[in-house]
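Final paragraph of the annual report: two paired records, presented back to back.
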Amino acid sequence: MPGVFFHTNLPVQVNKQKDHPTYLRQLALEIINDIPVVVVKDDGSRNDSDCTGSGIYITTHNQELKIQRRNPDFCCVFRSEQIAIDEGLDSLLSLSCSNEIWILTDSRSSIQHLANWHRVRDNTGMNILNKLKSLSVSYRIHLQWIPSHVNIQGNELADALAKPSAADASVPSAPLTYM
């Protein structure tokens, strides 16, 4: 997909389970600090009651946007991460951006799934790919994996947005779709 770049690794090979969180954080910050203006950080969450939510934190040169979304009950965390990416892209369609957009996610599997775009068949994945295609006409788009729970400010904020949205009983859960 021209204009869309999928980055599932940090600059050096790491092992999330074995490498020290401070080291992982430093490697991620090396990438983040070189990113130009528009950054989308997303996260998905599921609680003990199988309620799920997504959190999205977007920063541009002159805006900061925080989005919380209640997802369908019994939705897996992978799907919640995908929903967060989809919601972030929805917001970008109406924002004025620089020439590059970086989507930072702690869901390596989401990036791997989307990188195999010719095999994506699920609705959420197809929605994301259609939005990426539309946005890539005007912007270079990077989807970058970053490690979770290593105190990266925007990622921790997206996580903090996702958790309460999963528990928000005032918002009815949408039906879970499989196609």
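The closing record of the year follows.
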Amino acid sequence: MAYTLAGGFLAAVWTDLFQSVLMFAGVMLLLVASLSAVGGLEQATLKSLQNTGPGFVFGPGYSAADSDHQFLPLSLAFSFFVVWIWGGVGAPAGLVRLMASQNTNVIRKSIYVLSVYNLGIYLPLIVICVCGRALLPDLAKSDEIVPRLALLTTANWPGGSLIAGLILAAPFGAVMSTVSSYLVVLSSGIVRDIYQRLLRPQAQRGELRLAAWATMILAGLISVAVMWSPPKFLQVFIVFSTSGAAATFLVPAIMACYWRRATPAGVAAGMISGAAVVLLLYVCGIMGWSPEQKVGATGGFKPWFLLGLEPLIWGLLMSSTSAVLVSLLTKPLAAEHISRLFDRQTGTAGRAI
């Protein structure tokens, strides 16, 4: 929060770059340390199977005697790929980073760089988690797997404490990177779109800066208060926030980029309907209004997996349907406005701008 307050969007962008490098280095170090400690990938796989049972790998899944669980249905497994891909694309923290690009050519090139980077981050994490199941089979909270593994696997290394610290800095870098972007989105949305546009159109630059700082500080204090008593599994809240944000912003963002017939009313309908569907399915699951489910996170904070699908899928379907229908039923924007957004403009000297 401190560096975002001081430097705003520029600080968030540069620290994102440094934290990404730190995350990559931390994952590589933990991969080497984990495989060395367990004796290689083959031993990690065999020991993890021994510690958990073959039901996690081979069908039909869990033992029939275990009535509290069941093997994940194919529909929910499919949902994971939708959440992973489109959840990240539709997250405001990801969308706002595109504004740091110099031009569209830079964005196109970054697609290839990011593909290689993600491959180097997430495939090793799968191997690391397999090693974690082999080395720490009785870990009560799965959210602690990275720090526990870092401390365990580097204990006998020269400078092990320093290496463990570098590894532990990786997840903190990921958290800080996302939080800084969300602070920028939150403060700009509240200050520019609500405070300046609706309440104080005549507000000066200094007043807007103070309002942005106050918004960031308040958001940080609320986050600290909420996490004072942390949940059992933090990942369930990450999935909830990712699904809700993507269902709200993904379809409107795609429409704004590629569909000339989109209208403000259609975009608003897509945002409201997508968010409403995700919230409704979560409320049904939390309140117990859904049929009994043996899938999902342990505890009460889980949604209703309607037809075995993650709420994000239903949210995207409703968002896209309502956004397209409302756009077609409402008056299109002026042709001059559409041309300014979609067509290449030329200056007085004939040079494209």
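The chain has two domains: 1-230, 232-343. This concludes the annual technical report; the extension proposal builds directly on these records.
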